[in-house]
Write a structure and sequence with these properties.
EC 2.7.1.15; 30% helix; alpha/beta; 23% strand; four-stranded mixed β-sheet; UDP-N-acetylmuramoyl-L-alanine:D-glutamate ligase; nine-stranded mixed β-sheet
């Protein structure tokens, strides 16, 4: 995958994030107050496309917004990040929405209403051509898995690498989908759900990642939050630690930032460890600011030496 200079094509979700600032997540049957309510552009597909574009890489987003007031807000936000929206479709009904409960520690709990992201999808000839001419295709799981699998088949037919961020729906990946994936990137919780194995220690994480490798992906990249990241291939394991930050403000979108930055670095010719370090730096900036898309760093904010 190194040094493929075609554009990055992201196929995925677009959401309006309603962020509630709370002291803690309410217990069942409990009502608590929120300090504030803010609306931010988000969705895993939109976040990853925006992250790549803000890092200066040519990026297309294939996605869907609704016919509500949020649609124009979301489109304007993506355009301001430099994302090409030639393949963003408008459908009837509401846009996707996420309700984010943000705690003082920066940790969050999220409830998603799929909206336009779950509407009927159609991969026209123009979209398929963009996929086939891409440097890489980046997917997540906030749109139907059958759409992701169809995209992956088109990409594989043209030799285009497919990266799947496992965030989104909590459901198994089909046996037919897994062999289409070049890089599968879960966090430790998603890894445990996909494999049914513990992920409490680094040895557990590596063992679970290797179990996934047996089902088809070429590499498994595990995002470990404050513990960094682990990349597992058939014959090697690479670990990169997280960078210290002054204060974690909001972790929303940090995983999306990491995945997108990792793919951008690979497309630009970095080796996997360098790409992990680049992605870790980008994510460390992201978590120090509020919001998902609004917290994504610009290229010039990253330290010198990355181009």
């Amino acid at each position: 995958m190194a040094d493929r200079r075609g554009p990055l094509v992201v196929v995925g979700s677009v959401n309006a994030d309603l962020v509630l600032q709370v002291d803690r997540v309410p217990a069942p049957g409990e009502t608590i107050g929120a300090e504030s309510l803010d609306t931010f552009p988000g969705g895993k597909g939109a976040n990853q496309a925006a992250a790549a574009a803000k890092l200066g890489y040519p990026t297309y987003l294939v996605g869907q917004v609704g016919s509500d007031a949020n649609a124009e807000f979301l489109k304007a936000s993506l355009l301001s990040c430099g994302v090409n929206l030639s393949f963003l479709k408008k459908v009837k009904g509401p846009s996707g929405t996420a309700v984010v409960m943000l705690q003082p520690s920066g940790e969050n709990s999220i409830v998603i209403v799929g909206g336009a992201n779950q509407h009927t999808w159609s991969l026209g000839a123009d979209v398929q051509q963009s996929i086939m001419s891409a440097g890489a295709v980046l997917l997540q799981r906030e749109i139907p898995d059958n759409v992701n699998e169809a995209v992956a088949k088109v990409a594989q037919s043209a030799g285009v690498p497919v990266i799947l961020d496992a965030g989104g729906v909590d459901a198994p990946l089909t046996a037919s989908f897994l062999p289409l994936i070049s890089i599968l990137s879960p966090n430790e919780t998603e890894l445990a759900r996909l494999t049914g194995m513990p992920t409490d220690t680094m040895d557990h994480v590596e063992a679970a990642a290797r179990q996934l490798l047996q089902h088809g992906p070429e590499r498994v990249l595990v995002k470990l939050g404050s513990q960094g990241a682990l990349l597992v291939t058939g014959d090697a394991t690479t670990r990169v630690g997280a960078l210290p930050v002054a204060k974690v403000v909001d972790t929303t979108g940090a995983g999306d930032c990491f995945t997108a930055a990792f793919v951008v670095a690979l497309l630009e010719g970095s080796d996997p460890k360098e790409a992990m370090e680049f992605a870790t730096l980008a994510a460390s900036i992201c978590i120090q600011r509020k919001g998902a898309m609004s917290s994504l760093p610009l290229r010039e904010e990253l330290t010198a030496g990355w181009g």
